[in-house]
Amino acid sequence: MHRTNGEGRLAAALVEAADTLTETFDTGDYLRRLSDHCVELLSAWTAGVMLIDGGQAVSLAGSSHREAVALDLLAAQHAGGPCLESYGSGRAVAPVSIGVAHAAARWPEFTERALRHGIVATFAVPVRRRDTLLGALNVFVPTLPNGGPDGGRWELAVAQALADAAGLGLQNHRTYAQYRSLAGQLQDALSSRVRIEQAKGMLAERWQVGTDEAFMELRQYARRRRLPLDRVARSVIERSVDDAELRGP
Question: How far is CA 92 from CA 137, 155, 187, 212, in A?
Fold first, then answer.
């Protein structure tokens, strides 16, 4: 791949990674697409992302290019592997030969699984947002990038750029979702208050009493029946409860 073309495609991938402020956002699809970009930009065999929380993998996503293999290799890292190592250190795991790592007993279970899949080399970079580590991006390649003129620095830089964009995108979506949830709660609280005020007014007018007395009857009924006050207010507005019940003993 020519670097000029690759840089243009990388820029497009980074822009796409930033587009997470949508209601239809799906983490699995997002990480799968990110892994696809990594495969396409680096001519990798496959790639995947492991999101980690508290030292444990909480989500795995593989590129649509050999997705089953990517997921298998990510799952094999529960006892150690490039993802956990990158996440633990907060730094990239430089390209490494699977055969050499296996001979050195580095990540035994993972390297054995990788050899069965015919993986030649791998590297990983952390997915983070500032000081918050979210996981790692793992790339599986057909040749060891260290043999190139820059010793694999280009591949690591591209992977890290994608991982950084993912960290920003994931964190932004998390913040967006929290604000939407809070806005929904505030709207529900406001709507509830409006219904209660409406019910108070209706009862005060029907009974020819003050709104404070109407509210007291409304609240006492809710307590007697162990019902939410908003639900009782809705019943008053819909006229599904009669006055005799509301003004009970």
Answer: 9, 11, 44, 66
Distance CA 47, CA 63 (A): 5
DSSP 110-132: HHHHHHHTT--EEEEEEEEETTE
CA angle (178, 181, 183) in 5-degree steps: 110
Q: How is the beta sheet containing 93-97 ordered, strand by strand?
A: 56-62, 46-53, 132-141, 121-129, 93-97
Give 150-181 pLDDT, tens digit per residue. 557 888 888 898 898 888 888 877 776 676 77
**Alpha helix (H) residue ranges in the chain:** 3-18, 27-42, 67-75, 82-89, 98-103, 108-116, 153-207, 211-225, 229-238, 243-246
248: left (phi over 0), alpha (psi -120 to 50) or beta: beta
Q: Which residue do the tokens 């009974």 mark?
A: 207
